[in-house]
Amino acid sequence: AHQRDIRNFSIVAHIDHGKSTLADRILEMTDTVAKRDMQDQILDNMDLERERGITIKLNAVELTYDAKDGRTYEFHLIDTPGHVDFSYEVSRSLAACEGAVLVVDAAQGVEAQTLANVYLAIDDNLEILPVINKIDLPSAEPEKVRKEIEDVIGIDASDAVMASAKKGIGIEDLLEQIVNKVPAPDGDLEAPLRALIFDSIYDDYRGVVLSVRLFEGTVKPGDKIRLMNSGAEYEVTEVGVNSPKPIKRDQLIAGEVGYITASIKDIEDTRVGDTVTNAANPAEKALPGYREMAPMVYAGLYPTDNAKYQDLREALEKLKLNDAALEFEPETSQALGFGFRCGFLGMLHMDVVQERLEREFNLDLITTAPSVTYHANLADGTVKEVENPSEMPDVAAIKTIEEPYVKATIMTPNDYVGAVMELCQRKRGQFVTMEYLDDYRVNVIYKMPLSEIIFDFFDKLKSSTKGYASLDYELDGYRESDLVKIDILLNGDKVDALSFISHRQFAEKRGRDIAVKLKNIIPRQNFEIPIQAAIGAKIIARTTIKAYRKDVTARIHTGDPDRRAKLLEKQKRGKERMKSVGTVDIPQEAFMAVLQTD
Ligand code: GTP
């Protein structure tokens, strides 16, 4: 294709506003996918995405559009996730585009992630095309939303596309706007190759598949390429585009989005954000690349079967190619053996990583309770970064402990301001300010400990505002807090993987709550198991798991054989997810017990 006929754009939105459905309609309208192959949310091709109904990964496809001006255009569409934990995927997608389609739900209006995502696009100087979606809903208020986009975001929405992705309304209007408003890419075709790696995935047969946006030059099979950051060189075996199935091409040119394979087996050589150049005629400077993401939460990941440690390492390395925000380093736990301390952008991210490791790499894992990074200021003047609560130094050695704070922006209808403030206060929040966006909506801003916000804050926020409030947050430095480490002892032995950090004010109550919870979660064995919670040498709570009396299945021996089989099966599966610690079997649930507060 000629550069003037190429259009590169992302679709961004708050979660559930209809991006993936809109992408479906665009693929249909442009006959990219044959009718018989069409299915809902076709770009959400991971099972996990389809089951949960959310987009986790960015997804780039090429499609051709016969426009009203009589020309045929080559579109590269990148669908992106809406959830805050995956905003790194959004920022990487935007760097590959000239335009962004901003989808706003006509009934919900602008929400926290609408703002966060559109600001990313504005920062990247992209042309923004607002689409007001779901106009078919009885509760839709498109004119109000149009005004909101102008007042709150500050962009012109007079031409906003009025759409229903569900009913297929407004799609052609949008496609025409993409042709007429999104600038065609430029970039010197004769210059040395510069291609930005915005994603990658490991394929057992082809090696690493690089998703790239070419900014200058061209690339074709047989070319010798160099990854500028790592210096590694390879010979290109294939170039192509996804549509949405991979289609080979003779070459890719500046302005295009596509993939490159080069039998790259050395995973460490590839990094998202790196620049691909031509080894024989290299570019002088790499492209700017991406800002590194700092993980917000850390948790230990351990194979239930200790022999699977190497498998877990390989799986993490391969997954990281496709999930640039994932971080990991080896760690050992007395209780759990060899595993990895992993860094995540949030709880959903952590959940998704565990599920992908188990499904895509066939592993059974135990995850420990997530924790933030604390700074322990020691008596000797040094600072220790503590990502794992069990590594918190002895009380005697610590002068003060600091914890990360965030600036949280909560967008809520007027009526729920009281409920939101009450919740923030309860989570140790400090009120900053309140901004009225219009007559009925408010931005409530608080500074709060990250540890209070990552776990169940979002669920609590949703339930106390009937689902209307939305949340965005950014790190806001470290502050001193009165924190203590609580250890859990089973059968008199400290279980390092169950230690957690709490504000002193809540320490005793949480110690008691958790002891009781563990009592209910850990299965009875043929001896008594005392459970204790302790701060240093001081025991703050204790309970006991009684010894069991009889086989659980004994009672239903005469009952339905199907049911008995199912129960046994369930017990077996539950057991796989257990870790023997000393003489006690601890199920996965126990490690998460510390999270369920209140
Ligand atoms: P994430 O990928 O998870 O961020 O969500 P999304 O923005 O891609 O939303 P998705 O396309 O999955 O749509 C969310 C829900 O809204 C689905 O149940 C869709 O069927 C529904 N939906 C999407 N577009 C429309 C529309 O135009 N009208 C109506 N009534 N429902 C729609």
Automatic annotation (TrEMBL):
<dbReference type="InterPro" id="IPR005225">
    <property type="entry name" value="Small_GTP-bd"/>
</dbReference>
<dbReference type="Pfam" id="PF06421">
    <property type="entry name" value="LepA_C"/>
</dbReference>
<keyword id="KW-0472">Membrane</keyword>
<dbReference type="InterPro" id="IPR013842">
    <property type="entry name" value="LepA_CTD"/>
</dbReference>
<feature type="domain" description="Tr-type G">
    <location>
        <begin position="4"/>
        <end position="186"/>
    </location>
</feature>
<keyword id="KW-0648">Protein biosynthesis</keyword>
<dbReference type="Pfam" id="PF00679">
    <property type="entry name" value="EFG_C"/>
</dbReference>
<feature type="binding site">
    <location>
        <begin position="16"/>
        <end position="21"/>
    </location>
    <ligand>
        <name>GTP</name>
    </ligand>
</feature>
<dbReference type="InterPro" id="IPR027417">
    <property type="entry name" value="P-loop_NTPase"/>
</dbReference>
<comment type="function">
    <text>Required for accurate and efficient protein synthesis under certain stress conditions. May act as a fidelity factor of the translation reaction, by catalyzing a one-codon backward translocation of tRNAs on improperly translocated ribosomes. Back-translocation proceeds from a post-translocation (POST) complex to a pre-translocation (PRE) complex, thus giving elongation factor G a second chance to translocate the tRNAs correctly. Binds to ribosomes in a GTP-dependent manner.</text>
</comment>
<keyword id="KW-0342">GTP-binding</keyword>
<dbReference type="Pfam" id="PF00009">
    <property type="entry name" value="GTP_EFTU"/>
</dbReference>
<dbReference type="GO" id="GO:0003746">
    <property type="term" value="F:translation elongation factor activity"/>
</dbReference>
<dbReference type="InterPro" id="IPR035647">
    <property type="entry name" value="EFG_III/V"/>
</dbReference>
<dbReference type="InterPro" id="IPR006297">
    <property type="entry name" value="EF-4"/>
</dbReference>
<keyword id="KW-0547">Nucleotide-binding</keyword>
<dbReference type="InterPro" id="IPR004161">
    <property type="entry name" value="EFTu-like_2"/>
</dbReference>
<dbReference type="InterPro" id="IPR000795">
    <property type="entry name" value="T_Tr_GTP-bd_dom"/>
</dbReference>
<keyword id="KW-0251">Elongation factor</keyword>
<keyword id="KW-1003">Cell membrane</keyword>
<dbReference type="Pfam" id="PF03144">
    <property type="entry name" value="GTP_EFTU_D2"/>
</dbReference>
<dbReference type="InterPro" id="IPR031157">
    <property type="entry name" value="G_TR_CS"/>
</dbReference>
<dbReference type="InterPro" id="IPR038363">
    <property type="entry name" value="LepA_C_sf"/>
</dbReference>
<feature type="binding site">
    <location>
        <begin position="133"/>
        <end position="136"/>
    </location>
    <ligand>
        <name>GTP</name>
    </ligand>
</feature>
<protein>
    <recommendedName>
        <fullName>Elongation factor 4</fullName>
        <ecNumber>3.6.5.n1</ecNumber>
    </recommendedName>
</protein>
<dbReference type="InterPro" id="IPR000640">
    <property type="entry name" value="EFG_V-like"/>
</dbReference>
<dbReference type="InterPro" id="IPR035654">
    <property type="entry name" value="LepA_IV"/>
</dbReference>
<comment type="similarity">
    <text>Belongs to the TRAFAC class translation factor GTPase superfamily. Classic translation factor GTPase family. LepA subfamily.</text>
</comment>
<dbReference type="GO" id="GO:0016787">
    <property type="term" value="F:hydrolase activity"/>
</dbReference>
<keyword id="KW-0378">Hydrolase</keyword>
